[in-house]
Design brief:
10 helices; four-stranded antiparallel beta sheet; 19% strand; alpha/beta; globular; binds magnesium ion; binds adenosine-5'-diphosphate
């Protein structure tokens, strides 16, 4: 199967171009609450109404699964990094993607919003057929928030400006409205008091929370997280995970690459284990982490859960 994906535009790959949630949607806890949430909760009518109406005219958009990937292949030169990935994320679902370094997790996430172009396979995200050559890439990316390991905040802008700039430029919101939404999201991540500061004045964990507030300010349907706590000092990891847990409780659809197994076990509806560019195993979080079926999953989990254990390399 061949796929002609539109070329990714590195300029719009900056997370400032990634969307965020309307704080007015507020808590949707009742609709989808924490562990044991159904695979496809109905996270409240407010999630679908205006978004879908606004997006209905977006080119290349159809369907309702948050993420639907089939037989995805991606190579860099001779190196085949993704070797036939199938992945689904339902609306309102939280999926944690785990696996050893180099297994293709970041590449998969980057293919989802066309920061990388796959060689073959099909991807649909938020109803957009990402692998359709006629895709409106910008419209698709507006629906997908991405949070990276390295925050990617603008150092020369204040925390507040970081959260408003794309709202004004991309969503054409007025400055006042953008500011109101940004402040509501900064409050949501506990950082409204830092609005006037520069990112460099904040701890890593605080910067990551700003990055989450910035993404939320764009009102996304889906949030992608690529190891959001891996670059943080251990004492700030918990604050970021708490925000992510709250987002999950609020009904946000989330695909999270993480090594935080307790987060995955407690918050994810499903865990997907990747190794060597394929999905080796997936299932309910507690089952995959608690009683993995495959030897590769067991080996990986024992390394992650017992990082100080010395063992011989494969
Ligand atoms: N832009 C790139 N060019 C060449 N090789 C790459 C590129 N990005 C990733 N790779 C390679 O693809 C493989 C998978 O990388 P990645 O998706 O980052 O894995 P993970 O996120 O699971 O650690 C690695 O071998 C990596 O070196
Ligand atoms: Mg990675």
């Amino acid at each position: 199967m061949s796929t002609s994906a539109a070329s990714p535009d590195p300029a719009s790959s900056h997370p400032s171009a990634s969307p965020g949630a309307d704080p007015a949607r507020g808590s949707q806890r009742d609709a989808a609450s924490g562990p044991g949430r159904s695979a496809a909760p109905s996270p409240g009518a407010s999630r679908v109404s205006s978004d879908d109406a606004a997006a209905a005219s977006d080119r290349g958009r159809s369907g309702s699964a948050a993420v639907h990937v089939r037989d995805l292949h991606k190579s860099y030169g001779d190196l085949e990094v993704l070797r036939g990935i199938d992945l689904d994320v339902a609306k309102g679902e939280v999926v944690c993607l785990i696996g050893p370094s180099g297994s293709g997790k970041s590449t998969l996430l980057r293919c989802l919003n066309l920061l990388e172009s796959p060689q073959s396979g099909t991807i649909s995200v938020g109803g957009f057929t990402v692998t359709d050559p006629d895709l409106d890439v910008d419209a698709m990316r507006r629906r997908v928030g991405m949070v990276f390991q390295q925050f990617n905040l603008f150092p020369h802008l204040s925390v507040l400006e970081n959260c408003t700039v794309s709202q004004v430029k991309v969503l054409k919101r007025s400055k006042d409205e953008a500011k109101r939404i940004a402040l509501a999201n900064l409050e949501r991540v506990g950082l409204e008091a830092k609005a006037g500061q520069r990112p460099t004045q904040l701890s890593g964990g605080q910067q990551q929370r700003v990055a989450i507030a910035r993404a939320l300010s764009m009102d996304p349907d889906l949030m992608l997280f690529d190891e959001p706590t891996s670059a943080l000092d251990p004492e700030t990891v918990g604050d970021v995970l708490a925000i992510m847990r709250q987002l999950a409780d609020d009904g946000m659809t989330m695909l999270v690459v993480t090594h935080e197994m307790s987060f995955a076990r407690d918050v994810a509806d499903r865990v997907v284990f990747m190794d060597g560019g394929v999905v080796v195993e997936q299932g309910p979080a507690r089952e995959v982490i608690g009683s993995p079926q495959h030897e590769r999953t067991r080996t990986f989990l024992s390394r992650v859960l017992n990082p100080t254990t010395v063992d011989t390399p494969e």
